[in-house]
Amino acid sequence: MTLPRISAGRQTATAALAATLWLAGAEPVLAQAAADTAAPAAHTFSANVALASDYRYRGLMQSNGRPALQGGFDYSHASGFYLGNWNSSISWLGDSHPDVSAPIEMDFYGGYRHAFGDSGWSTDVGVLQYYYPGSYPDGYTSPDTTELYAGIGYGPVTLKYSYAPTNLFGLADSRHSWYADLSANVSLGFWGLTLNAHLGYQKVQVADASYADWKLGLTKELGHGFALALAYIDTNAERAVYTSAKGRYLGRATVWGSLSKTF
To answer: Which residues form the signal peptide (predicted)?
Structure first.
């Protein structure tokens, strides 16, 4: 289980390069001015890879407290439409049943983002498919999940609502579950630090399975696309519901870290 990791894309320098060559004999200031006025790229592609101390999704442990390798790809169009894929190593499905072998989570998503000029307001709507390839015994409820989401943002703050018309991550009779997510990512203005705060509530249409989760952390930009993140994560998930077959409580508090690279 995971949120789409939609990373900022790179703008093409093709138009700027053409302007520079055309003005090869002009003053450098004129060439720079031509580069600065180049139109943004219509199509943007990016990729990301990360090593996390533990894969936590909506506060819950997905890799049994062990490191997880993660990464994905994103495409966005100047109109606001985007598509992406994100993947992570997991162990929670294998931990749930001895006859299950599903070590990878694959997420596919697409949607539309729009910013309202310089007002600071933005919207984001889309669909996300969680896919868990592997082998499962007869009668095992499929963990594959579809969610529809809509979000509204103002400055560094975002409020997002996700709705699952399918069963939620293998929980039988859990259709129509939803998740509300209030997040803020505030640049501190020094040392390349960003403050990350999050509060979420997962409503599950199964008795005693609903819970809240929260996070407080920092992200440090290291340059050349690298970033280091450190956070405190906790939940109030019911132990009787969210304890694995191996006896490990999936919602316990943790200090989490990751090192990521965006291309």
So the answer is: 1-31
